[in-house]
Amino acid sequence: MVIWIILLLMTAAAVMAVLWPLSRHRALAAQQVDPDTQFYREQISEIERDRERGVLLPSEAEAAKAEAGRRLLRATGATAADAFAAVGEPALRRRRAASTLALSVIPIIALALYGAYGSPHLLTHPPEQQAQASGDKMDLMAAVSQIEAHLAQNPQDGRGWEVVAPVYIRMGRIDDAVKAYESAVRYLGASADRLANYGEVMVLAKDGLVSSEAQKVFEQAVQLNKASPKARYYLAVAAEQDGQIEKAKQAYGELLSSSPEGAPWGDVVRQRLASLGGEQPVAGQEDAPQIGAADIARMVSGLAERLETQGGSPEEWARLIRSYAVLGQRDKAVAAAERARQALAQNDAGLKTIDAMARELKLTDAAP
Amino acid sequence: MLVEAGHFALTLALGLSLIQFVVPLWGARANDPVLMSVGPVTGMAVFTCISFAFLALTIAYVTSDFSVMNVVENSHSAKPLIYKLSGVWGNHEGSMLLWILILALFGAVVALAKNSIPQRLQANTLAVQAAITIAFLLFILITSNPFTRVIPAPAEGQDLNPLLQDPGLAIHPPLLYIGYVGFSISFAFAIAALIDGRIDAVWARIVRPWTLGAWAFLTLGIAMGSYWAYYELGWGGWWFWDPVENASLMPWLAGTALLHSTVVMEKRDALKVWTVLLAILTFSLSLLGTFLVRSGVLTSVHSFAVDPERGSFILGILIFFIGGSLALFAWRAPMLKQGGLFAPVSREGALVLNNLFLATACATVLIGTLYPLALEVLTGEKISVGAPFFNFTFLPLIVPLLLLLPLGQTLAWKRGNFLGTAQRLYAVFGLSLLAAMAMFAFEYGGPAAAPLGIGLGVYLVLGSLNEIVTRSWSRGTPLAVAWRKAANLPRSTWGTVLAHAGVGLTVIGIAATAWGVEGLATLKLGERLKAGDYEARLERVIPRVEANYREDVAVFTILRQGQVLGTLESMKRLYVTRGMPTTEAGIMTVGLGQVYVSLGEVEADGSVGVRLYHKPLVLLIWIGALVMALGGGVSLTDRRLRIGAPARAKVSPAAPVPAE
């Protein structure tokens, strides 16, 4: 609220700056001097002052005065023709028009442009307050920047890079995560897990595409540990993306058969395999063949983490709820809706969005 | 909150500028002093608003407010305070804000100078100034907003480009912009005169200090940029004929011409139309420079085509102001009253010649800069027009100009005597020839052009000083009297002499680069590298960690003919946040020359790639520029610039010494 008053006062001051000289017509009209001849008169008196101060030699002063005098004569002749117009009805009308112009143009332009390009919504919810509202987020941010500062001083601390990398992924700073894993590999040496993580984040950075660089990283990981499930999975995905369907099928199959019962990646691999075999096609698979269910699950959990730690807009919460519902994780969707209601408690419009989403997905009946 | 208020102030400034454009212009048409008096007040108000916006952005930088996109992209909380400040204008958006701040500052100064400018001229000038402000405010608000927010705010910024984290670049843009934008005032005065259809010596007198000031700052800005390129880029070069450099050189050349033609107009009421045209062209070239640097068209025409919003906006501004002003010129110029005739051989004639040479040289640079761009647009072929082109075209135009310079300075107004003038310069010719021959004998076997260049430089310095000598000393005069006379010469005379002598110093510095030597080797600890008489011995390489960068410091001992001169450090830095390496050359000044060490790769076994240069007299290049700018400054302090006392025909020996 205070800020609006300040902006209002600023606008008023700007308008006054124009109205003020327009209101001084009496003083000016009383003088009744032509500004041009006035200019030369003042110049002559200035020359006189300079001579007295000794800045100019008397001969110089005389010459300068003579020249200014000649110009004064010429100026008087020039302006005598067009009458000097500070008083009278037309002058009054002009002043009124100018005042109206100032009163309308300045506020309209300022408000229109500020409304179009400014961030007026931040005025009612200043970022400082938003920051206080989500203390967790600040803690995470502070921790990250502490680690970053530490790494800037000790860039060879591979452990640090390895710790910060997953945090970057959660914050959505994928490119930074790639760099962090790269540094971790460089300073801690290559291990199958580390390389697999490094490769995975490279894939994320490419929106799910396994680039040839990433493929090399996975191959290295498999060399170090033939069992590495993550690396083998992505190598299979790479084969799939290259169009080598049979090879991919075989790789998925081998991965499944060598995995222990109930391995967390089992479902993902089975879905993938199914989509290749033409059996039980997973919804949406044809539309986005290069993004696997694993990626979707990861994106959703990334979004969830981010909303949990940093907060977010009602639309983002709604997206999370819908994602859970689409993935068939109804319990999680209900829980997310609950969390969203808590987080957006002070935001009426936001609550409506969440409620509408919950109704649409028929989550409300199941809510305990 | 402050950031938003700053943003709002910028939009208010736009509204006020519109009023400042319409109302005073109308007042001048209707001859209404009340409406005209709106101009100065709005000029002040616009300046207040833009200063506030600039202050708000500066505070955002100093407090590392990462909710502002611009701060995130160009700052880092660990950056030293001075680079947080210089970061404000170390990026596109901020530098445009600085540009417009200086524009508004000059508008405010014009507004305050109500006793030295006739009101109609002032009103029209402020209106033109407001039109420029409107165009650039719209550009900033619509395409380059420095106040864009990011919510939630990132915890850390991306740091300023490391090449810009340097004291030289902290002050280079403000100097350059004061120069560029200063010419906008000359432009505004020229357009105001065209609108009013009246132009005379008073106009010239009012415009000259502005041109002079802008020119002096532009000189400093170019010199600063050149020195920065010299020590920061690590190649030891000081001028690369790069389009960005040319963009600042072109307004400088045109501005130099303008400066001289205004003198003719002020003294002799001649060359009016030409002066107005030059004022328009000079500012047009400043705008062109802004366009070249700010639109991204230089990095590649392709990138311009991909994101054309900014570029085409500035191009629009460019076309509007250049096209509009030239159209106005074509329409009104024939109505201006002509005055002042002069003989071909006279001070005026020499100044016309000066103008022709400068304008042609400027056109050469323009072609050399724009031709590759045009070719790339039309055929997609990328060519680079480098030093050879400019050496073949620019130098032949500049050398005769420099040869004529002392002659013109000595010629009388109206009708001069060429032979008499030449006679007065005999001594100077002789000494310069002697200097050239001495240099040639001394450096026998060296490049042939260098001694000639030195001779030309000496000739320029002596020829300029000659003016002081002939005006204050004749055979038999005691030195004390001569000295007093010299001290009493008008400041503008001293300014001219200094500026011209500065040109001479720069020419000497440039000519001496021909004697520069360099050595290149990979050194292990204790090994030496030789360049001419100088040797560098690698003592040690130590890693060092600072707040926002790490560096390998190589310490060298510098020897001349086996004798130790001292040690210097040369660095290779890595700025962590951007992951960007830079080199910091190690420089030792020996007399007016410099020993310059720049590092290549630091190998794992501790050996270092090293480049060693010895550059004799190289400092004169920039000292010359400083002296030129100093000349401009001295000339500015001349009281007569303001009140316009005509020059005295001769100094009477009995003239009393002025006492304050």
Notes on the protein architecture:
The complex is a heterodimer of chains A (368) and B (660). With 368 residues, chain A is an all-alpha fold. Chain A has 19 helices and no strands. Chain A has helices spanning 2-22, 25-31, 35-53, 58-81, 89-117, 121-124, 127-133, 135-153, 158-171, 174-188, 192-205, 212-224, 229-241, 245-258, 266-277, 293-310, 314-326, 330-343, 348-360. Chain B is α+β, with helices and mostly antiparallel strands. Among the domains of chain B are: 425-514, no CATH class; 517-615. Chain B is 63% helix and 12% strand. Chain B has 22 helices and 9 strands. In chain B, the strands form 2 sheets. In chain B, strands 2-3-4-5-6 form a 5-stranded antiparallel β-sheet, with no helix packed on it. Chain B has a 4-stranded antiparallel β-sheet with strand order 1-9-8-7, with no helix packed on it. In chain B, β4 (549-560) and β5 (563-575) form a beta hairpin. In chain B, α3 runs antiparallel to α6 (92-112), α6 (92-112) runs antiparallel to α7 (119-143) and α18 runs antiparallel to α20. Chain B is globular, with a radius of gyration of 27 Å. Mean pLDDT of chain B is 84; it is low at 645-660. Chain B: One of its GO terms (biological process) is cytochrome complex assembly. Chain B: Residues 315-639 form the Cytochrome c-type biogenesis protein CcmF C-terminal domain. Chain B: Keywords: Cell inner membrane, Cell membrane, Cytochrome c-type biogenesis, Membrane, Transmembrane, Transmembrane helix.
